[in-house]
């Protein structure tokens, strides 16, 4: 059972997070309305991000999409536990699982909306560029990354067998 103080603290944190989110959305809308450039850091697991990208394209924005991923849900969960051990915030396992799968599902739509797409693998200590696409044309693909990725094709849908139709260089 929680004390009133613990409950109030927990509720305050939820309200604060919602306020920050609401402010961020209002700021994105303001920047979109005036045609200013801006960036967005997201898990890319919701519909709002895709809707924002569609609206930005409709307003004449050139959308650049950078997707940083790891090869498994388990690794995401390990990284979060490491972050918590270092004083960072926790994320419930069911949220991580839901966000991981949704972000991968949303990825195909990003290819259709963005002028430039960069897929980065953050599985190892050093982040690697897996794929670069500009105007629907594949610009760069790391052969060693693709060889390694074939082992994970069932887990990561953006890999070669699942990628949208891209034109060669």
Describe it.
This protein has 169 residues and is an alpha+beta fold. The chain has five helices and four strands. It has a four-stranded mixed β-sheet. A hairpin with a 6-residue loop joins strand 2 and strand 3. Helix 2 runs parallel beside helix 4. It is flat, with a radius of gyration of 18 Å.
Brief description of this entry?
The chain is an alpha+beta fold. The protein has helices at 4-34, 47-58, 73-85, 93-113, 143-149; strands at residues 64-69, 116-121, 128-134, 137-141.
Terminal-residue CA separation: 62 Å
Shape: flat
Tally of helical segments: 5
Report the sheet with the most strands, covering strand number, pairing sense and barrel closure: 4 strands, mixed
Q: Could you state the oligomeric state of the chains shown?
A: single chain
Portion in strands: 5-15%
Number of strands: 4
Structural class: alpha+beta
Order of helices and strands: HHEHHEEEH
Rounded average pLDDT: 80
Query: Which value, in Å, is the CA radius of gyration?
Result: 18 Å
Unreliable stretches (pLDDT < 50, length at least 5) are 148-163
Helicity level, as a percent range?
A: 40-55%
Strand order of the largest sheet: 1-2-3-4
Key attributes of the depicted protein:
single chain; 169 residues; alpha+beta; 4-stranded mixed β-sheet; 5 helices; 14% strand
